[in-house]
Amino acid sequence: MHRFFVDPQAVSMGNVTLEGEVAHQITHVLRLTPGERIIVLDNSGWQMETVLTEVGGQRVVGQVARRSLARGEPHVKISLYQGVLRANHLEFALQKGAEMGIVEFVPMITARCVIANLDDVNKKNERWERILREAAEQCQRGRLPTLEPALMFMQACERARHAGGLFLLPWEGEHEVSLQSALGVAPLPFTISLFVGPEGGFTDEEVRLARAYGARTVSLGPRILRAETAGLVAAAVMLYVAGDLQPAAEKG
Description:
Layout lengths: L2 E3 L5 E2 L2 E5 H10 L7 E5 L4 E11 L2 E11 L7 E7 L3 H14 L3 E6 L8 H5 L2 H14 L7 E2 L3 E2 H11 L2 E5 L8 H5 L7 E6 L7 H9 L3 E3 L8 H15 L6 H4 L1
Parallel strand pairs: 1-4, 7-8, 7-12, 8-9, 8-10, 11-12, 11-13
Antiparallel strand pairs: 2-3, 3-6, 4-5, 5-6
Helix pairs in contact: 2-4, 2-8
């Protein structure tokens, strides 16, 4: 069944009313008809199997047939602080990160970013949020990943320190501490802040600053990964260690 994240106000007393872009997609793109079923999610962690009762124009109406807890959310909250990349590279990281299970994305301006203006970055938020929504619907997430406003590097470090948990920064200059050893064998903390640089990586000054804020630098191995790949690889390892790559039946 097709899945759609909707505004919580769209669901009332067992009825669902969809308008705008979602209604257009159901009516004119998917060409669904009354009697067919969709999954509606209001970002509360619940999903609602909904029978369409009215399809037409810019308004779609349905009735909730079954409500259940949505699966697809990880047990650890990974926040990816991604140095701003060239447009299609950052969009790739957002899309695949959402599919993988990253909970929060924070675009970050660093010394080597091609785009160095916060306003220029934040102008792209609407498009990036749409990419995250579509990815979350496609991969059966239970909640929408959050896209935070872009931050300068020092602001991002302050935010990560305040969040608590693990603060990790993959860096090609780290030759002693692997990501695996940094994660350890004990259960992972609920919150993990993951810093990934732009094309060209972090400067030595940025690494020193991040360490002063509590970051642990880690190695992702002997191969230098692309900026849009490094965060995905690190997140995959974290989710594996946390047990989030097991079948849903085993996770419970």
